[in-house]
Design goal:
The complex is a heterodimer of chains A (about 260) and B (about 270). Chain A is built from nine helices and ten strands. By secondary structure, chain A is of the alpha/beta class. In chain A, the strands form two sheets. Chain A has a six-stranded mixed β-sheet with strand order 6-7-8-3-9-10, sandwiched between helices. A four-stranded antiparallel β-sheet of chain A has the order 2-1-4-5, with helices on one face. With about 270 residues, chain B is mostly helical. Chain B has one domain. Chain B is about 85% helix and about 0% strand. The chains are: A alpha/beta (about 260), B mainly alpha (about 270). Chains A and B meet through helix 2, strand 6 and helix 3 of A and helix 5 of B.
Amino acid sequence: MEPSAYPVALQVECLQKGFNGKSVLRGVDLEVPRGSIFTVLGPSGTGKSVFLKCLANILQPDAGRIRFDGRDLGAGDSAAQDEFRRRCSFLFQSNALFDSLTALENVALPLEQTTTLGKLEILNRSRDALRQLEMEEFLDQYPAQLSGGMQKRLALARAIVTRPELVLFDEPTAGLDPLRRNAVFAMIAKYQRHFNFTALIVTHDVTEALVASDRVALLNQGRIAFVGTPAEFSSSRNPVLSLFRDSAQALGESLTEIRRSHPTP
Amino acid sequence: MGVFMSIIRLMLHWLGRRTLRVVFGVGDFSLFTGRSFLSLAQTKRLATRIARAVHEQGTVCLPVILIVGVFTGLVLGLQGYHVLSRFGSQGLLGTLVSLSLVREMAPVLASLMLIGQAGSAFAAELGIQRNTEQIAALETMGVNSHGYLVAPRLVAALIVFPIQTALFVILGIWGGSISGSVLLGVDSGVYWSAVHRAVEARDLQECFMKAAVFGLLSMSVCAYQGFHADRNRSAVGARAVSACTTRAVVLSSIAVLVADYIISSFFV
């Protein structure tokens, strides 16, 4: 079978990770279909970012198996890991932009350092990525000179410039207001269709995730408690899911109540 | 007796743990430096990055080297004159100033100045890059972070430290001539001929070897501390960056002085 024809982009089996004797991931099993937007939901502090960082090899898992395109990314197989890095991008919660480089230099960096493309080709591809994210006017700006939303777009431009097959999004809407949260998910959905990459998102924003995703999973107490479509997620009577949905809804209502009792002057 | 044995056991336990930590640290540091040099082959646009690092360590630090070099020479000339005049040997002032600078003072003081300015900035920059996940971002992109961030600075140190040391020597000897000849009346011809006679090729070899070793050692220590700013368990965030910068300056200064003694003992 050709690797690219493999229907499952990413397969995780019994992934475990702990810190100082405290177990965070207690055996995560997951399959991410190729070309889909897959969102892993879960309350804060449940290990979503740890899970993603284990996938991206930023953290070394204690046990378990990760397969990309059917190929095991086990420790010691550096060729498989290099291949994975070439075909995968990671969008950090903090964006992790290089503050001493301009927007254009930030986007060009992965091409300059990991490909054999010529200067002109790198420049064209970087400009193209920034144009597609409507950031053409800000080529010479430094990340600190950009707004939070624009920094997110710049980080996405850097993530897609290498034309990855899989993009990992770590809490892409953290710290953003509801309008911007919507905009970020809409942006991910738009570019996922445009570039046809597989998107794996971890977030705790239920409403936006359910609208934008093809499939969702719930990570609870270090294990996957649910996997299914957004419709199945909304209608499921699984008690863990109900609790999570209710707490998210309750938070929304309490915020609305606060807004009503303290109207903006 | 039982209490005494327990105290001895605790002390041995503490000593063993500290020793293991030091051995682990030295081994890890050596691997870090080795890995950085090996990754040079994988780094693209290396010349540009080395040129930028040479600018950071060379051009930016030049004023402080020039000022310290001149004043070190002035002080050496002044103090040397008063010591030598007790024995009626003012004519040897050129010898004293030049040999002190070439063999010891220039490589050590220039390195300490460069550590204070370029090394601390380097450690802080890497510490911030570690804290803000920029180093992790490089690694997820498949960019060799050692090759991209560390190796060009180490190569630049091998170029810049000897050049800055040479400038320090020249300005120091010139400073010595100002205080000795211009201000205190030592004959200028006597001073410069003493300099000419005193400094031999072996002295210059020692001087430049020290400068290159100090450069490599100090910048590696600064890089190691900044690169692993997140390993500090007692401080996080901005405090971790300040802690790693302080540690980088202190440890690299100590490393320079220890290396100075070792190299000097081979040349004396």
